[in-house]
């Protein structure tokens, strides 16, 4: 799966292992909602691409991007990407029980725990093939942060599915780090567009709290975090707005309400659902129609058709439909 499609240039970005992981989770969600075998078939193809082509057996990790010709901007592995892939392969194993998906998921989780370890946190990026930490930067994706908790969900789920009890403390370590540092993550930058990007990452932290929402400190962070995201989103949206932030916020509202962390404000949820729907492409051929745009500046949609934005938005709208029909269940493992 390409990282995005440039609708103005008619060109895909490079193939991304992380985005392919998100695609697997999305296809399995759609398969679960519809029962259509074509979604499972596509998820299997993507899963086998990851395990049989993209997985670097010598380094025992997934590279940031993949290309047969080696024409890549950087040879690197990301902690966050690895966690997304672990969860995707584990979800595929739950459905198919094919050993390669569980085995690769376990190997990747082991690499996350060992290669990325950095004292009180985890390195965000390793340079390949040496697996040396890349210099940290002032952009959220190049630094350790509370957002890494979503990837740590891979350890949480593996500790349940594979009976590898040693993985749970890794999740707890990232949880403790996130609870101690998340208050300083926002706004985190003076530029509104970068703050909007950080809202996207901060929602990852809130999503990572869902398995422990019964703990008072986690429920409090979840409720306070939703309010912070809503406030900053409303302030920045007239200048720059991301579709995925709206979708993430809507999903979090529904989970928080069902988990009794924060009562649902139906008016806010309805407004976010309408905003999410407004990012959907209604025409443009098979590459665009039905998908969702990454974002907009002012009233102008940006020329990026984004797979992850499409996944988050589609799931948020379906979950909102389920909630209104009294069918929503807070199964956080299905969260893309």
Annotation keywords:
single chain; 336 residues; mainly alpha; Glycosyltransferase; 2 domains; 3-stranded antiparallel beta sheet; 11 helices; 54% helix; globular
What is the element layout, followed by pairings?
Layout: E1 5-6, E2 11-12, E3 15-16, H1 17-34, H2 37-54, E4 65-66, E5 76-78, H3 79-96, H4 99-115, E6 117-118, E7 121-122, E8 125-127, E9 132-133, H5 149-161, H6 168-181, H7 192-208, H8 216-236, E10 240-242, H9 243-258, H10 266-277, E11 295-297, E12 300-301, E13 304-305, H11 307-324
Antiparallel strand pairs: 1-2, 1-13, 3-4, 5-8, 6-7, 8-9, 10-11, 11-12
Helix pairs in contact: 1-2, 1-3, 1-11, 3-4, 3-5, 5-6, 5-7, 7-8, 7-9, 8-9, 9-10, 9-11, 10-11
Alpha-beta content class? mainly alpha
- Helical content band: 40-55%
Residues in β-strands, percent: 5-15%
Radius of gyration over all CA atoms, rounded: 19 Å
Number of domains: 2
How many β-strand stretches?
13
The rough form would be described as globular
Strand order of the largest sheet: 2-1-13
Give the biggest beta sheet.
3 strands, antiparallel
Low-pLDDT residue spans: none
Number of helices: 11
Question: Can you give the mean pLDDT?
Answer: 94
Order of helices and strands: EEEHHEEHHEEEEHHHHEHHEEEH
Taking the alpha carbons of the first and last residues, their distance comes to 15 Å
Description:
It is a single chain. This protein is mostly helical and 336 residues long. It has two domains: 13-144, Alpha/alpha barrel (Glycosyltransferase); 187-336, no CATH class. Helices cover 54% and strands 9% of the residues. Strands 2-1-13 form a three-stranded antiparallel beta sheet. Strands 5-8-9 form a three-stranded antiparallel beta sheet.
